[in-house]
Design brief:
Length: about 230
């Protein structure tokens, strides 16, 4: 494992307590999710039977490497529990995700799950979503210009995410506009307004979706649960 994943090993091991035999597991993307997938791979190697639904091509490749059986939403229908990371977590367990670029697939998998467990370091906790000043929005390349204009009109100043000299391309073959935002007073309303823009496929706002947030605080893992 990388240094980041090794630092989050404790939270990955704690999350494994939510895994049940013969269950369907949503596999998230990012550092904390990677730590969980490594831990799950160890359990699978010891005989645990599960099927995983990955949220990105990179997570799928890691799961295959670790011997985790993979499936699809078409084949499974419903997911028992999804384990994923987040870039911001509010006290209400609202999230901003998507710094890793997998926000649309992550939201589809989360919405298909009976339970969503989020794994983060303490540095990801905020008093209101938007405090870190960045909200990812995935858009169809054909609609980029329109999306940029309309997002700016909403006060979300967009910047095209790049991969070197070229635009960053998601696993869905789309662009990401990283929007400059202030702390968000009404994330439900903002997401509704953004999703109304033709060409927008999804935002990094995950409101009312997380059931449990596991927070790595030094050597300790703290659990936050939705009331």
């Amino acid at each position: 494992m990388s240094g980041d994943a090794d630092r989050l090993r404790g939270i990955g091991q704690c999350a494994l307590e939510y895994v049940r035999e013969d269950s369907v597991i949503g596999l998230g993307t990012g550092r904390a999710a990677t730590a969980f997938v490594h831990g799950l791979g160890e359990r699978v190697a010891s005989g645990l039977r599960v099927r995983g639904v990955p949220t990105s091509d990179s997570t799928a490749a890691l799961a295959r490497e670790l011997g985790i059986e993979l499936s699809t939403l078409d084949a499974t229908g419903r997911i028992d529990t999804t384990f994923d990371g987040a870039d911001e977590v509010s006290p209400e367990l609202d999230l901003i995700k998507g710094y890793g670029g997998a926000l649309v697939r992550e939201k589809i998998v989360a919405a298909s799950s009976k339970r969503l467990v989020i794994l983060v370091g303490a540095e990801k906790l905020v008093s209101r979503v938007g405090e870190r000043g960045r909200l990812p929005v995935e858009v169809v390349p054909f609609g980029r210009a329109l999306c940029e204009r309309e997002l700016a009109a909403l006060g979300c100043v967009p910047k095209l995410r790049s991969d070197g000299a070229e635009p960053y391309i998601t696993d869905n073959h789309n662009y990401i506009l990283d929007c400059e935002v202030e702390p968000i007073d009404d994330p439900v309303d903002l997401e509704r307004r953004i999703l109304a823009i033709p060409g927008v496929l999804g935002t990094g706002l995950f409101v009312g979706m997380a059931d449990v947030v596991l927070v790595q605080e030094g050597d300790r893992v703290r659990s936050m649960e939705r009331a």
